[in-house]
Give the backbone structure.
Amino acid sequence: MRKRGASPGNLPSRGYREAILTMTEVIMPKMGDGMEEGTLLEWLKKDGDKVKSGEIIGSIQTDKATLELEAPGTGTLTGILLEEGGTVPVGKAIAAILKDGESLPDGWGGKSVTPGSGETLKNDAAPQGGAPASAPIELQQEATSPTTSEAASTEFGISADQPTGNGKPTEAQAQDAKADDAHESGNVVSEGRVKASPLARKTAAEMGVDLSGVSGTGPGGRIVQKDVQSANVAPKAAPAKAPVAASPAVVAGQEDETIKLPKLRQITAKRTTESKQQVPHFYVTVEVDVEKILTLRQMFEDEESGKVSINDFVVKACALALRDMPEVNSVFNGDTLIKKGHVNVGIAVALEDGLTVPVVKDADTMSLRAINAKVRELAKKARDGKASLDDLTGSTFAISNMGMLDVDNFLAIVNMPNAAILAIASVRKKAVVLEDDSIVARSRMNITCSCDHRVLDGAVGARFINVVKTYLENPTRLIS
């Protein structure tokens, strides 16, 4: 929120000046150092509606999360400049809240922004650098990362539920939201339509919840995501299957289809491109014997939490290696390097619409069981749409695990501003020649470290990956 100001010489009257000075702007907030813009998913209030300070008036999507937008003041919502699906830089005004007797000054805000227009809001009074003013609007977490893909087997410890999107409302959902606003408050409106936000509808579909039995706590009785999650209602019975129609004949030469990229895919594309353009990558690969890890895992079997996974051992091994070699736990910063004081290991998770990296904070101080529990917690929060910004930020190193996808080797892209990322391939049974020249079958896997050459030289990268290998081949050191 910010109060509009202007030069007294430009104001025709004291009353006009007071109206401008007390007007409350709703702005696109800055929710992290890397955030440059935000997308409005939906308005829960329309132009002319009365709102109270702290009341939920909409939802926005940042590069990390989907958040509920709260009214920064009490009054009448007016001057909406950003339509649903529109994207603007942080710090830009997207609407205003006026008190009784106030009006918008001439020319305020410029023209509105519509989805896909490629335009940004005209707002001459926005703070320099795109940062929000001293009293930013408050945001309440509703849902964060998209529903995760359960992209890992039990052995590797990364869950892989079928992804269901990134929280961005579909066209049909947007139409439903607009239709809801035109009806009276309450759960069920004319023609049996339930008054619920697109995110609530999406969550209900995933959980099998019948929205007609859910009580809404949102504006005007509207059902929001938390209502669905806390509802104690029986799932709606599955409808009878319709007869399967015969498959149509394949038509040769079908026309191309243009598909707009989801927001998360756009962010993934932008960041991976920036990394490959700005970071001079080099790669070092070693083969690791994991026989001892597979044996040691049996010690950690628990009826409640299951076995500690190979991925958990890798997280701990990397964390200890980073503590041993703090130069790898560093960030490039122009003509300086910043050696990070904490060891925070990010784990890349593939979603249907892009990538996200939940972070295990202070992993070097955690036991294997604690790492296992934390990874499970982060995976569940991501699946439930409850991962916070803190869960998704602050990594000093990253791990990308494709061991469950039957790959021999791959090269990961450095997750800026980290200096390195470790790629984990699949475990293979291989014939290995021992020191006495005997040949035995051993379980082996390739790991590759992608390094930022601005921070690390080749010899440092080679030493680091061999320190990781030593820990993995002597796993009792990871449980001491």
